[in-house]
Amino acid sequence: MPFIGNQPALSYTSFAKQDFSTSATTSYTLDNPVANANELALFINFVRQEPTTAYSASGTSLTLTSATASSDDMYCVYLGKAVQTVNPPNASVGTSQLVDGSVTSDKLASGTGGKVLQVVTSTSSTNISTTSQTFVTTNFSLAITPSTTSSKILLMANTTAQINGSDINLDIYRSTSSSFVSGGKSRGLIGMEPANAMMSVPIIHLDSPNTTSAITYTIYFRNNGGQTSSFLRSDVLSSFTALEIGA
After folding, report:
1. Among 84, 119, 144, where does a domain finish?
2. pLDDT tens-digit map of 115-165
3. Are residues 78 and 119 in the same domain?
4. Nearest to 115 by CA among 158, 148, 143, 156
5. ω into residue 194 within 30 of 0, thus cis?
6. CA-CA distance, 172 to 183, in Å (whole number)?
7. Separation between Cα atoms, residue 200 and residue 191, nearest integer Å
8. Residue 121 and residue 234 share a domain
9. Overall domain count for the chain
């Protein structure tokens, strides 16, 4: 039907109804306060009563002109109290009705086992060398804050290394536990022959940090033969990625 002005948005509302236990009386108590009788539609034995003539109302007091009987059926509908339905009908909400960013990672984490909740990536081409046979930091790191304590963190790194006739180990240090993620076993091992060969060194590890605090993961390396090892190159861009996986 044509009308003047903006088209009203669809809404889902219902009117509150109250059933009464009747007796031989003219006085009843309303569940919801009203200003006057015109805010109620009162029915006795399924016949609508005339406001201000058959009854009056103020606040939570309902007063009838004539007393009811215990066998009467009486109810009212609150015309002045439209109650909004909490849940819209099924399949009635589309993506255009959702505000950008309104679905948080907490909601995504609920019931989304195995799904990627967030991805953090870091890149580096900063070369570092060592002769140490104990782990030293490469300063190649990234930070991520898990959405839930049950989330897993999938760590993946694609790096390069160069050594002089020996082999090196790589590992990942987790800041929240102040320890390596390996549980005593290194994440990466590579041996070089001939000397000074350059090779790609991948790392893949699924971590269970059990925290919602920010975590910094850092790659460490060592030279098992006490010779010079070189990690990363200035002419090669290496990547380090963390994926939060919903439990």
Report:
1. 84
2. 899 999 999 999 999 888 888 999 999 999 999 999 999 999 988 887 776
3. no
4. 148
5. yes
6. 11
7. 11
8. yes
9. 2
The number of C-alpha atoms within 13 Å of 140 and in the hemisphere containing its C-beta is 31
CA 208, CA 150: separation in Å to the nearest integer? 8
Q: Does residue 106 fall inside a structural domain?
A: no
- Clarify whether residues 72 and 182 are in a common domain: no
pLDDT of residue 114: 74
Give the CA count within 13 Å in the CB-facing half-sphere of 222.
12
pLDDT tens per residue across span 6-63: 665 555 667 889 999 999 999 999 998 888 999 999 999 999 999 999 999 998 999 9
Residues 80 and 115 in one domain: no
Q: What is the DSSP string of 98-154?
A: SPTT-S-HHHHHTT-TT-EEEEEEEEE---EEE--SS-EEEEEEEEE--SSTT-EEE
CA-wise closest residue to 127 among 242, 225, 238 = 238
Is 3 contained in some domain? no
Cα–Cα distance for residue pair 193/167, rounded to 1 Å: 9
Domain residues for the domain of 196 are: 111-245
pLDDT, tens only, 205-234: 999 999 999 999 999 988 887 788 888 888
- Residue 187 DSSP label: S
> Could you tell me if residue 100 is inside a domain?
no
